[in-house]
Give the backbone structure.
Amino acid sequence: MVKDRRVGEWVDALASKAPVPGGGGASALGGALGAALGQMVVHLTIGKKRYADVEEEMEKNLTELNRLGEEFLRLADRDGEVFAPLAEAYSMPSETREQREEKERVMEERLLAASQVPLEMMEKALLVINILEFLGEKGSRMAISDVGVAAQFAKAALTGAAMNVYINTKAMKNREKAEELNRKAEWLIEDGKQRGDAVYEKVLEQLRH
């Protein structure tokens, strides 16, 4: 599991020629880092008189960010779990009609599973961005730069995961289902990028002035 491995060990595995971890796992880890930075900002805000009026909401966001961080780590593992059977499906025999039909059935099933995992990452990344919008406005000014960094990680998780959605839906025979997944990914990209960039730009403006 990602959570049980040393950072250097996981990075070495990412750098190797092994198929997993790959871009999907890296995207999920980026999301986890964004959620963790958000938690740090909340910890630096709670208990300060200046922010007493938002302490209750900060506590709720802390719980949610912790949950999202755990979800990203789960998805990093899940990404590898769905890739292995998909890779195996590509090498299934296809000499007879029955074999081709079976291969196509299995491929569709596994391509769908491999598309849904990064799509879930994208949804989680947008939830992190939602909280970062609040932290950018109400969180400790001493940690405002960390909000900007977290927004970049969350956006990278979202846009990176989108690549894994598209590479799998592109190979699906069921174009109706593929386009349904693509539309959802496109909406998440448009909304998430715009809002993530807005958080980052607001932070940058505050730091420059």
Observations:
- Helices lie at 7-15, 23-45, 55-90, 97-138, 144-169, 175-208.
- The chain has one domain: 2-208.
